[in-house]
Amino acid sequence: MTDSSPIYDTKVEIDTELREPSLYQLIFLNDDSTTYEFVVDCLMKYLNYTEATAQKITEEIHEYGSATVAVMPYEIAEQKGVEITVSARSNGFPLTIKIEPESD
């Protein structure tokens, strides 16, 4: 018995173009309770800033009410935001962090 099934030649185009992920801003909001030292420590521990850079960013947060502390892909920004918020709450601080799409 011979195989009389038709033979199909299907061509599939695969999109192989890689795109950079969208970037998001990690924003710290100033409050009257979270200490300067705690914010500096968080910037150094979770975002690997030097002490001098962390102090400069913390001063900007205090002076302007908020500051973008990092720009990164959404998943990383979200994870960093959660880690820092958990640390803040564990230490009794109300530090608020927002994540927004990077503005063009």
Describe this structure in words.
The structure is a single chain. With 104 residues, the protein is an alpha+beta fold. The protein has one domain: Ribosomal Protein L30, Chain: A (2-Layer Sandwich), CATH 3.30.1390.10. Helices cover 41% and strands 20% of the residues. It has helices at residues 36-47, 51-64, 74-90, and strands at 23-29, 66-73, 96-101. A 3-stranded antiparallel beta sheet has the order 2-1-3. It is elongated, with a radius of gyration of 23 Å. The termini are far apart. The mean pLDDT is 92.
Taking all residues together, what is the mean pLDDT?
92
Head-to-tail CA distance between termini = 67 Å
Total strands: the figure is 3
Query: At CATH's second level, what is the architecture?
Result: 2-Layer Sandwich
Total tally of structural domains: 1
- Cα-atom radius of gyration: 23 Å
> What portion of the residues fall into strands of 2 or more residues?
15-25%
**CATH homologous superfamily name?**
Ribosomal protein L7/L12, C-terminal domain/Adaptor protein ClpS
Summarize the structure.
By secondary structure, the protein is of the alpha+beta class.
